[in-house]
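G., the chain you wanted modeled:
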Amino acid sequence: MQATKPVKNPRKQRKMLYNAPAHLRHKFMGAPLSNELAASRGIKTLPVRKGDTIRIVRGDNAGFEGKVSRVDLKRYRIFVEGLTREKVDGTNIFVSVHPSKVMIKSLNLDDKWRKAIVERKQELAEQSKKEEKVKKAAPKPAKKAAEVKKEELVEEPTVAAAAEEKPSEEKPKAKPKAAPKKRVAKKKEEAPLTEKKPAARKKKETALVAEEKPAEKETKPKVAKKTLAKRKSVAASEKKEGGT
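Predicted structure as tokens:
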């Protein structure tokens, strides 16, 4: 069977449909089965063939039922018995219908190959149903010790976080917001009244002390220098007198 890749480009899609081989063209002619037929056969879709009775579901001829008289694989169209239109010259011709607008009401199983296809599909559908039942009925596998430990580690911090979040939510309820603002405002108003006078006095005293100290420092070294110079001069004069 030739493998086909999914194509998104519309130009390539049309080219693929136009140049498709016969076995793929047959699959493109697939149509859904009616609810009653799908329940009895266990199949959802099948390609339309000559001799099947179909019902048109969509389009201008919706609701029309009839037997398929011809299948055109080249143009992907179906022709139904009784579905005709009159031309301008007065001749009647069949109206073509796309298989996507059709629902199969009954199958033509004269062909042995088609019977085999239906039987194979029924077996596959039954197997899939059995597998689904087994999966639902099967017990869940026991968790490993490592997985259980991980779950415990994950659950512990969540409980601690929930315990921490509860007091945080209760705090704003216990403490009123308006009371602390009033107390702070009173303190600010009272503090400057008591501290204004001593602060001004301290500044004046520090200014006076700073003015007095540099004067003393300047006078003391000058006096000391003069006395040393006098002493040196007296000592030199005494030496001269003693030498003479």
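Residues 159 and 165 are 10 Å apart (CA to CA).

Shout if anything looks off.
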